[in-house]
Every structure is written in C-alpha cells, then in structure tokens.
Design goal:
Keywords: ATP-binding, Nodulation, Nucleotide-binding, Transport
Domain ABC transporter: 6-235
Radius of gyration: 24 Å
Distance between the termini: 32 Å
Order of helices and strands: EEEHEEHEHHHEHEHEEHEEEHEH
Shape: elongated
Number of domains: 2
CATH class of the largest domain: Alpha Beta
Number of helices: 10
Number of strands: 14
Strand content: 25-35%
CATH topology of the largest domain: Rossmann fold
GO molecular function, one term: ATP binding
InterPro entries: AAA+_ATPase, ABC_transporter-like_ATP-bd, ABC_transporter-like_CS, ABC_transporter_ATP-binding, P-loop_NTPase
Pfam families: ABC_tran
CATH architecture of the largest domain: 3-Layer(aba) Sandwich
C-alpha cells in the first residue's frame, strides 16, 4: 500500500497542569486527497497541527509526514509540509514579494527555483507585490499566508481555518486555487468551522472531540449516518395543535398552517408522512423536504461524545 501523506499513531499531548489535549489519536491522511479535520473549539485540532509543524512537543505516540518521522527526520518532515495558521502572522515592514523571498531562502530554495511572482499571481496579490504587508486587508493577509506556506512546494498543505473573516468572493477564489493544487497532486488537510465547505470540498473527514478521534470516514459514508429527514408541509386550514402519527419522530407547528415533521428515512418514506396527514383529515397545499447534512452528523457525534 502506498504510504500515507500523514500517518498518526496513538498521538498524545498532555500540557503542564494535566490538561490532556490529545488522547491516543490514530489516523492516516491518504495521498492526493482533500482531508477534513473537524471538531469543536478546544477539541485538539490545533494541538495536532502544531505538533506536525514542530511547534508543540508530543507526549506520546508517533507522527510522520510523507514517510518522514517528525522525531527521527524532523528537517525532512518539515520540508514536506506547508502550514497556513489560524492566526494572521506577518512582518508588517516587508512587502509580500520580500516575505516570499525570505521564506524561500529559509527553506533553502535556490533563487533560480523560487516562484515568488507565480505564487503572488495565484493568490491574487500580484498588484500588491511591493506594498507593505501592513497595508493589506485581512483577506489579503490570509492569502499571503497561503503563498508563504507554498514557497518550498510541499507535497502536503495544511489549512487551519483559512477562510475565517474572509468575504465570499475571496473564499471562492481560495477554494478554486486549493482545488487546482489538489488536482496537481498536493494533499490538502483542512480544518474549518464552515461545515458546508468541508462537505463540498473534502474526500474524507475525521472528527476529533475532547482529544479523541470519534469518526474517520469518506464524506459520503459520514453523511449516510444522518438518518433524520425533515419535511415542511402547508395544509389547507389553521391548526390549533400539530397532528400526531407513529411515523413522526418530531412534529411542530411553524405557523397556523405550516407543520414541520422529522422522520427516520431508514424506516419511513415521505409518502408515509403524507398518508398520515391525509388520515388526519388534512389536505396538503405545499411541501418541501430537507436532507440531513454534515452539520447534523457533526452535532450528533460530538454531543454523543
């Protein structure tokens, strides 16, 4: 089997004072995928990423990047990964072009092989190449962080909340670029609180809660865990109370003539719901349905955890 882009086994981190941020986490990030790493605030995601970046020392387990153990081959491991941090970190007195040149030099990239202008064009900052970084907007600074993470052409790119505070247009530009990087062979690891982004972008998703791995499946398989379906029905007359039926999981009145019904799609069909309403003497004027999404699965798993 081809080696994983990132391989983590029984990873642990306990901070001074006894706070256990990671508790025996194990998973692989397959090469060539966009991999989602999700979890509530404080779940351990940033600790895990900081361990991979060499900024936090683990207290147990192993981790390797592109086949290089982070303890045995730290330099090779670091050169194999680019990390876009959650915090906006930059030197305000350098221009974007100077910033990329400096970071390329720190990674030992020869001048002839540096891609400063190419990267600035890719993240739509070519016109700001010689402006001081402190004059850039928040979205521009975040895109500069993406370019910084790519100066040494790493095979693995980690994006830690990359679209926080970024407007819709810039977010779409960023995801278009990430998709193109992935098509060219870059493995992408994404953490985000915008779960619709993860659902749309990721091939596979792992969820961490309270320092433990609680899910790690292809996105489609994870979505299949959501069994609840919601149907909203408008009927022909005002109701004082919602109707009841054995096939309803939950039912509530959204308005005098609008009923919101939840049911388990593994044992009940929409036709059963409409039949139950007809049996209650109600005529349906309008109906709409909503499938459960990644947010529903995420909330279900993390609440259970």
């Amino acid at each position: 089997m081809e080696q994983a882009a990132i391989s983590i086994r029984q990873l642990e981190k306990t901070y001074q004072g006894g706070k256990r941020a990671l508790d025996g986490v194990s998973f692989d990030v397959p090469r060539g995928q966009i991999f989602g790493l999700l979890g509530p605030n404080g779940a351990g995601k940033s600790t895990l990423i900081n361990i991979l970046a060499g900024l936090v020392n683990k207290t147990g387990g192993t981790a390797s990047i592109w086949g290089f153990d982070i303890d045995e081959h730290p330099r090779n491991a670091k050169v194999s990964i680019g990390i876009v941090p959650q915090e906006i970190l930059f030197d305000p007195f350098f221009t974007p072009a100077e910033t990329l040149e400096i970071y390329a030099g720190l990674y030992g990239v020869p001048k002839a092989q540096r891609r400063t202008q190419e990267l600035l064009r890719a993240v739509h900052l070519a016109d700001k190449a010689n402006a001081f970084a402190r004059t850039l907007s928040g979205g521009m600074k975040r895109r500069l962080l993406v370019a910084k993470a790519l100066v040494h052409t790493p095979p693995v790119l980690v994006l830690d909340e990359p679209t926080a505070g970024v407007d819709l247009e810039l977010r779409q530009q960023l995801w278009a670029y990430v998709r193109e990087l992935n098509r060219q062979g870059t493995t992408v690891v994404l953490t985000t609180h915008y779960l619709e982004e993860a659902q749309e972008l990721c091939d596979r998703i792992a969820i961490i809660n309270n320092g433990r791995l609680i899910a790690n499946e292809p996105t489609a398989a994870l979505l299949a865990k959501a069994t609840e379906k919601v149907v909203e029905v408008t009927v022909d007359r005002d109701l004082a109370a919602p109707p009841e039926a054995r096939c309803f999981e939950k039912v509530e009145l959204k308005g005098p003539r609008t009923i919101v019904i939840s049911y388990d799609k593994t044992r009940v069909h929409a036709g059963d719901v409409l039949t139950a309403l007809a049996d209650a003497g109600l005529s349906v004027v309008d109906v709409s349905t909503r499938e459960a999404d990644l947010e529903d699965v995420f909330l279900s798993l993390t609440r259970r955890g």
